[in-house]
User: Fold these one by one.
Assistant:
Number 1:
Amino acid sequence: AAKRLADKVIFITGASSGIGQATAREFASAANGQIKLVLSARRLDRLKSLSDELTSSYKNISVYYNVLDVSKIASIPVFIDSLPSEFKEIDILINNAGKAIGVDKVGSIKQDDINDMFQTNVLGMIQVVQSILPGMIERKRGDIVQLGSIAGREPYPGGAIYCATKHSLRAFTSALRKEVVNSPVRIIEIQPGAVETEFSKVRYYGDEKAAKKVYEGGEPLVAEDIAELIVFSCSRRANTVIAETLVFPTCQA
Ligand code: NDP
């Protein structure tokens, strides 16, 4: 893995917590620091601590971090265009920023929450690909890892909007994979079940107690489980596409 990842520029959205943060750590560890990481999210302080942690753990790692709110669509190409030259040629995109907000049934879902989920999980996700894919095609290399979900395959009550966003992601991602067929660009979708991160806290508007309750009676996955799968998928032989991975804990089916 270390050899295949060496010197890659890896761009992560939503790197300030959960799966994104664990993926940054996992790439750094798998490549023994021999990578260039671009970390983005809205919380700059979190990105700074992660960057400090990685640069003090690996002497050869390069890290650039900055605020990117993917729900602000117009800011995405600006962010990509203004990357320092050493980080401009992105080899691996981890299109991870995303959220579920609320557990309301259709009819009482808040319009602001619908907008935020679609802006972030769908419109932002698409614009990130739009801004990065042409460079990958031109350079004839690149991996795009899309954070889908079990919710993108099996809708459930109380999650109509989130499920609709992840179904959108899956449809977009499959079409994209077909469009780049016969090019060296790989389109990889990871579809996790329950993973204990800040995801649940965001879903319950910051209510930690309600967030914790979700995991009672079963042991969820941890962010590192997903990070390992992402790094595994990106470090296969160049001709191998791990197209879709559905992964959940033993308490789910
Ligand atoms: P977390 O809440 O821990 O992390 C979400 C990340 O997304 C944070 O870094 C957050 O950073 C970032 N984010 C949220 N909104 C925006 C925005 N508008 N612009 C940029 N970044 C944003 O959750 P997870 O790590 O669990 O979630 C990561 C992905 O995995 C999501 O796409 C989620 O849908 C998916 N997933 C999660 C599952 C789970 O059970 N945890 C299951 C299946 C899929 P900040 O707030 O600093 O911007």
Number 2:
Amino acid sequence: MSFDTLALQPADPLLKIIGAFRRDTRTEKIDLGVGVFRDEDGNTPVMRAVKLAEEKLLREQQSKSYLGPEGDIGFVERLADKVLGNAVPVERRHGLQTPGGTGALRLAAELLAKAGVRRIWVAAPSWANHAPVFLAAGIEPRFIECFSIAAQHLDLAYFLEELDGATPGDAVLLHGCCHNPMGIDPGPLGWQAITEVVVRRGLLPLVDLAYQGLGEGFCEDSLGTRILLAAAPFGLLAYSCNKNFGLYRERVGALWVTAPDAEQGAIAHSNLLALARANWSMPPDHGAAVVRVILEDAELTRIWREELDIVRERLAGLRRALASEGRIGKVDLTQIARGKGMFATLPLSRTQIDWLRDEHAIYLAGSGRINIAGFTLPTIARFCDALRALDR
Ligand code: PMP
């Protein structure tokens, strides 16, 4: 036996950028590549609410015995109340804890495949891991090229027109808020229009909500999710707590299936539990327990929400500062102020991206995606100077 039938797989391009950034000895270097929040000092701190919840767990947790494939159900239920409110009644939603948003997406894709779904429609460009996750579960992603990077614009009419041509029973992926990598969301009227097509065409919506609270506000950021899942008979919600609780490597996530009645929901849920059991048996506990402790405690929730507000305000402030630089060559920064969350994608070629790295120590993804949180006010000025030099 040998593995000589296997071909060498390329390293994740973002990991390569992280490595190159780390090795770069220039002190003025700027990292706009990796998708984590950074404060004004360039750190990705542990939130105070998280530290307090961890202290409480350390003092009070009595056992680390197994839970089950559903994970920490107190975490799942508290989170569902916060995210969905009463838009989706309790008997219509059935959830389980997953290893991060990625685990939730993978499980959702496996459930879709098991239910006979073959295709998922996705607005392009999308998060680079969406296609691999769906393909790994045997679901074919169908991309709708409806974002213009040059104009920083979502052509929603085109997206809806293409979606209208989908076969009933197809799935459609929607970013709940803070689109990665474009930072452009449909807005309440857009969500209404999407919901109308999804319901009329009999499509199955899968919402990927990975940045709740980093866009317009915690409640505002799940408005579209609530509109859609309240109206569609069946749906899926893949959730990540890794950005809005700053828990990244703890891998905290959840997946809910929504169904027209408790009986059909219970069947779908039992399939999710069986799939989870075959994948990871049960999810890692610590991060989800931390989120549960925060959500169970009014004072910890208050502290966390204040910290999340600071994250959101920092992103919005940096967006305004970038936008105030106007248009630089082909890059129209004015639209950035209208964007939401951590990302935007700029119309830059590979040669220009390499030049920014080599000449100015500015690192961004090969797609032109920038992490807004990678900036500080002084580095925005440096970045814009570099863009002006690029244009000359
Ligand atoms: N969905 C989107 C759109 C994302 O950007 C990410 C993380 N970058 C995820 C899901 C998954 O996040 P995680 O697995 O870290 O929870």
